[in-house]
Design a protein that fits this description.
By secondary structure, the chain is of the alpha+beta class. It is built from five helices and three strands. A hairpin with a 7-residue loop joins β2 and β3.
Length: about 140
Amino acid sequence: MASPQIEKGYTSIAHEILEEICTYSFNASQLSIIMTIWRYTYGFHRTKHDFSLSFFQQATQLSDKAVRKELTFLIESKVVKVHTEATRTAARVLSFNKDYEKWMVPKRGGGKSMEQISLFDDEEVGNNSTTPQVIEVGNNST
């Protein structure tokens, strides 16, 4: 039986980041890479760390092709920052870009934030469509 406990370690992530990341159209592989970056940066109280492709493969159980493709997407979309490129002897130094306003990833639901979502269209509000209608239910015999 699994029994995770915060006493055995935890990763501190700002609530704002967790709330925002759920509103973007990331796929499962991209989210796995992001969470791996969080674990090995924020989880160790640092902002950047060196990550090799083989490290991502092992941590996420994704194929080499998937890691390359999705990591490239995250970098090009400004979700992940490259601080130092990989060399023959050192892995690439990466960090998570917490400035989500700079991300070039589409948001779900047409990009509306929670504050922008309305229960009624503007046209309907002006037409009294929110007024409840009375529907008689019961015996129609007199």
